[in-house]
Structure formats: structure tokens, C-alpha cells
Amino acid sequence: MFERLKRRNHFGGEPFRDRNESGEYLSTLARQLTSSALEEDCKSQHFECPGLDSLFGWYEFDLRLNSWDTKRMVQLNIAPIAAAQATWKRVSPVLVRDTILLPLLGLAGILLLWWFVATFGSQLLPTPIEALQANLDYILHPFYRRGPGDFGLGWLLLASLRRVLIGFGLGAFVAIPLGFLIGMSRQAMLALNPIIQIFRPVSPLAWLPIALSIFNLADPSAIFVIFITSLWPTIINTALGVSSVSQDYLDVARVLEMPRWRRITKIIWPASLPYIFTGLRISLGIAWLVIVAVEMLTGGVGIGFFVWDEWSRLNLSSVMLAVLVIGVTGLVLDFAIGQIQRLVTRRPVKSV
Amino acid sequence: MVKPIQSLDQSSIDRAEFLKIENLRKAYRRPEGSEFVVLDGIDLAIAENEFISVIGHSGCGKSTLLKIVAGLEKATSGTVQIEGREIRKPGADRMMVFQQYSLLPWLTVRENIRLAVDEVLKDASVQQKKRIVNEHLNMVNLIPAADKYPDEISGGMKQRVGIARALATRPKMLLMDEPFGALDALTRGMLQEQVLRIWESQRQAVMMITHDVDEAIFMSDRIVLMTNGPAARIGEIMTIPFKHPRDRHQLRETSEYYELRKLRAEFSGATFRS
Question: Could you tell me which residues are beta bridge partners of residue B208?
């Protein structure tokens, strides 16, 4: 698919040769980077990684086809599976079954598995019912304050969200201009590429000691780690978006004799916005993954530390609840950024 | 009923040579070093109010010729002059209608046209710009779709936006790169007539690339036939003797029409897709 993207870039041939070369280079760079990123994610989560190419294929699919399409973006991971299934079995969409029954079936399956493991496999793990009973207080009173360090889950969540959003915001603030620069200028790309290549594969947690040594405080250090985490996907996707602006649009700009600056603001910026948002989405997703781990290490108020703290008390019910809360929050974050994308790109959502 | 038009007014050379292409050659360098010649020895003059079609097989370099005239590509040697000045870069005096429409998908139909007007007619007031945009939306019957986005309208409508966008900047010359090539037959016919009506009401120089003989005969004053590439040349220039405004059905009842088509077929040496 990148081949196709490249060919589209080269549509115009002669002009912008310099940029096209860097664009071509960037797309291969992005390919390497993204596939290794996926590989890493898989490794870090102890998953088997069969057919990485196909995983990467999904990524491109979403990047290209769904970049405008927020509704499908929410289903980032399941869309390709659904598409694959549709090819071997054309089912007529039955609304109730598809939107309620089948998702419930999946949910019931996982609860059953949990129950099974809790009953036969683990002494510590509570059954779903036990967990629900134990968590009733947390669920009913998300915003309690009962003395120092004893806050409701809502407060913990807000504390973590605050760190993520500050770090992510700073990251976007730095990454988008940098990505733009790399996409526009071959020199900038050559200068910054080695840095990106070396630092991007580093687990964000490795930055924590460095951050702690600089800031001497847990909270700014956590934010710094999130900042670093947010940089790479946004830089790479922004650069890719900028360098792969369709030659057709650039031809329009040239025929209209647009000056350079207006060409950037009127054509290149809006044309690469979908890519930028793809980068932001990936960044925010990873930032939300990382904050839990960071908080486990730094302590303090936050959903991540809560998980570790409750584990130290062997209170697995709370851990299970926290996992659920973290998951739902991640989903909401992704949905929110999709809505922002829709607003910013001023494009109507297509029905799927 | 159709009479041949008078030969072009030769009293004014400037008018007859509004656009002048002289000894144009375009070659690409292959990676291994040898040259690939696309166009060779092209000489052509287009008058101020003339509608010219360039016909040729795929890959004969007719699009390259148009891009050189547009300034989007550079000739290897030879000159292209417009009103005596040499063309080196794109300019608002030659506006392009692209085959793939090239509308900006993040702007509505109105905003797409407005963007072009903003860029080219910098001195116009906001009121004037609005009026120009509305005029051209109206000209291509797109007022009802003015606030839709390009992906919400049909291909024919998109190309009407492309044409309105080009005309709204008041260019001296209109360049069209297979403007109807991506459209279905019905839409194509309707749009051909619409464009011809607009052109007949406000004449200007037009250079249209096409591979549709009927389209070329119906619309243009002269047809430039390109030989097959590589190193394509101008094989023949046919003058179309029909008066404007033209009617497609009347045209087809004349014997000249079929002679023109036959000539064309003989030239290519093969039955031509039409």
C-alpha cells in the first residue's frame, strides 16, 4: 500500500523532486519504525507475533482509508477482522444481534473465563461476583476523600489523566512542528532522523531515572516520560503526512501561484491533518499505556499506583476494577480525539 | 445548414499567435543515462479565442505538452510564449482543469472556488469576490451543492466545480487535461455541452487534451493530432468547419462530420475508440 502511496506522490514527476525523494525515504522509514513498534508492543506484552506484515497492513489500512473517518477509527483494531469476515460470509446486518447480543456474548465469555480461573486456578483471584461486592464502595463513591492518600477512583483517574494530558499536550506541541519540518526539508530529515531512530525504540520508562535526576520530583518526571512517549508517533506521522501531500493539490497551489507560506497554511497543513491526527491517536494510546507503568514506579496519587498498591495488599478485586476502568478510559480518550479530529478537519462522519 | 467558418483573421498576427509553441522538445533522462524523448519538434500557435483539442493515443505525451504550457513541467528545449512572453512557471493567466478534479477535500464547493479567487484576484473586495464565486457557481448550476464537500457530490459535479474554479480566476487561457475522461457517457455529453455554451458566451483560448474524437470534433475549432510516442510530433492539424453555437445532432447529420471522423481513423491507422 505504501507503494501505491509513493506512486501517487510521484504522479507529477519532475517538480518537487527533492521533496519526493525525502518523502519516499520517509515512507520506508515510517514502515520500518511502525513495524518495529508493533513488534515491540507485542514483545512487551508477551504476545506471539505471527505475520507482522499483516498487522502492519491494518495500520496502513487505517492510516489511508479511515483517516477522515472517525467512526471506524474507534474500531481501529477490529475493523480489519470484520472486513475479513465479511469476505467469506456476507451477513445481513441484524441490528440487535450485531450491536447487543454478540458483544454481550463476548463479554460473557471473558467473565466465564475469569470465573473459571478464579475458581480452579488461583487462590487470590476473586470471582466476578466477589469482586463486584468488594468493589461496591469504589463504584458507588468514585469521588470520596478519606484522609491523606485515600481517594476515590475518580480522583485517581483525574490525577493520571492530568499527567497524560499535560505530557501529551507538550509532546504534540513539539512533535507537530518537528514533524512538519522533517516532512518539508530534506536537511532537517537527515539531521533529525538518527535521533529519532535511536530514541524511538527506547522504552519510555528508561527515561524515568533521567527525568528524576533532572526534576527531583515524581510528578514532573512522570509528565516528562509521557512527553517523550508522545513525541515519536506524532513526529513520524506528521512528517509522512506532509511529505505525501498529493501532487494534485500541490499542482493546484502552483497553478494559483500561491506563495510558500500560504501553500503551507492553505494546502499542506489541512492535507496532512488526517496523518497528524493518526499520530496523535497513536501517541495518546501509548501514553495511556505508559502512565500506568510510570505511576507504579513513582508512586503518588494515580490509577497506576493504585493497581500496584492494591496488589501489595493482595486486594485483587480492586486490581480487576482498576483494569476495567483503565480500559474504558483509554477507549474514551480515543473516542474523544476522534471527535476532535472530526471537528478540526471539518469533515462530516461517513456512515459505515 | 453548416457552413465552413472563415479562415482566421490574419490581419493581426498577435491575435492568431496568442500562444506560440516553437520547436518544443521534452526528454527524460533514464536512470541508466540514456534519454527518453517524449515530445519532439512541436510547433503550434493558438489564437486568442480559439478552442483547440489535442488528440493522441495514451502515452503519446499530450498531457506532458499541456503541463509544459501550464508551467508545471519544463521543456527540455524550445519555447512556449503567451502574448510574446515566455512561459517559465505556472501562472494565473493559464488556469488548469484537472482530469482527477483536484478539489481540496477539506473545503466545500464554494470554498474551493473562493480559494482560487482569493489567490488570484487579490485586489478585489470581499463583496466582489463573493459575487464572482456566486456567479460561477450559478454558471455551472451548482448553487444547491455550494456548501457540500467534494466527497458528497458526483464526479460530474466535481468537474463542474473544477471548471468553475478555473473560470472564476478569469484566466486568459483555459487548459483542460481530459476533463471529461473520468465521467460516464451521459454526464460527459451533458458537461461537454455545458462547457461549450460557457465558452461560446465568453470566448477565450482553450487547449483541451482528449482521446475522444467526437468530443474534439464537437467542441473545438481545430484538432491537433499527435503521432504515437516516443518522440511524439504533431501529425496533422484539422480545422473543424462548423460554426458556433453547435448542436450535436445537427452536426451528426452532416457529411463533413463523417469525413472528419474518417480522416481521423485513416491518420491513426486503426479504429479509434470513441
Answer: B53, B176
